[in-house]
Design a protein that fits this description.
The protein is an alpha/beta fold. The protein has five helices and four strands; from the N terminus they run H-E-H-E-H-E-H-E-H. It has a four-stranded parallel beta sheet with strand order 2-1-3-4.
Amino acid sequence: MEKERKSGKNWREWQEKGLKLLEKLKEEAEDGIPVVVEGINDEKALKGLGVSGTIVKLKGKHSLSEVAEKIASKFKRAIILTDADYEGRKLAAQISKLLEQYGSHPDLRYLKMTRLLGKTAVEQL
């Protein structure tokens, strides 16, 4: 019984941290910081959670270099929020490197925090 209470408490704490993270993400997106995601399902998930502003999809008709150049031409910073699977980590590293080359700062804090919360896909937020 004691163990159940502790795990329930931990779950609530993690849930609260996740909600705070989401609120901060919403604020930054509303303030004009673009959020970079893998594809359409991630975009839909964020919009469903109330994240507005510029959401950039990496998977589409443009190369990563073209996407990075376009982001960097408009923004000094971009929030990277890819999935925590192999492909997502690889895309995050690639787009981060390209953004830096084009003079923009990739913000990986949300990506790292979602992984710490045990979320492996944007849709899980």
